[in-house]
Amino acid sequence: MHKISDIKGTFTLRNGVDMPYLGLGVFQSKDGFEVANAVKWALETGYRHIDTASVYNNEKGVGRGIRESEVNRKDVFLVSKVWNSDQGYESTLKAFDASLRRLQTDYLDLYLVHWPVLGKYKETWRALEYLYNEGRVRAIGVSNFLKHHLQDLIPDSNIVPMVNQMEFHPYLVQQELIDFCSENTIQYEAWSPLMQGNIFDLEPIRNLAKQYKKTVAQIVLRWDLQHGVVTIPKSVRRDRIIANADIFDFELSQKDMVLLKGMDRGKRFGADPDNFNF
């Protein structure tokens, strides 16, 4: 069991950096007021981790939300990702600079390779190592890397990725990948923890929600954290952002943890890291 304390609680990465285990995801949140407000509401609620990406086209709004909040930039764990068309050594360095300009910050807390673009991700990773060694990013990692991608990358790297952000929910556990990451001290992180909204149709989870007097989303997000998986539910609604963080006054029993994991059917709602065309 992983110790879960409160909304500002963290898991410690291999290099000693503390990563808040609950964050706000902003995928598909519109740039401008929508995303800026979501970020402000999250920070006001106590979130200290905001996850964006250059391809989301909302880094400007994210930066604005942080600046307009009462929270200091140094207290926010800010994450972005290099998009596939920017992969390669020089182009990744340029993409990083462009992300910083849009976010109006001079460093990131975590920078990720968004997808394992064949023939490019090793050069991209070399650029991330450079940025890390220069002190321009506090931690570096990957997203959507399966076990064989990591096994290909690690021997040719100076730094092992500190984080792997993956699609993760009761229908897609990928335990073998989690175990591999765990053996290599790579922090596992969930995107799409609520199965793009499909989670609300699952009766076993609805039953647990009744039993614990919690919402379906709260049950699943709590399951992530007790699994030792960082989670970044996406919402632009103030009430949802607040509700998603109300997961620190209960604990799922071992039996219920197993029940949720037993729902695994290897089903993806997002793209397959072995077969994507963007």
Automatic annotation (TrEMBL):
The active site is at residue 56. The keyword NADP applies. InterPro entries: AKR, AKR5G, Aldo/ket_reductase_CS, NAD(P)_OxRdtase_dom_sf, NADP_OxRdtase_dom. GO terms for molecular function: oxidoreductase activity, acting on the CH-OH group of donors, NAD or NADP as acceptor. Residues 33-261 form the NADP-dependent oxidoreductase domain. Keywords: NADP, Oxidoreductase. Substrate binds at residue 114. PROSITE patterns: ALDOKETO_REDUCTASE_1, ALDOKETO_REDUCTASE_2. The keyword NADP applies. Coiled coil: none annotated. It holds the Pfam family Aldo_ket_red. The record marks 81 as: Lowers pKa of active site Tyr. It comes from the Bacteria. Belongs to the aldo/keto reductase family. This is Aldo/keto reductase.
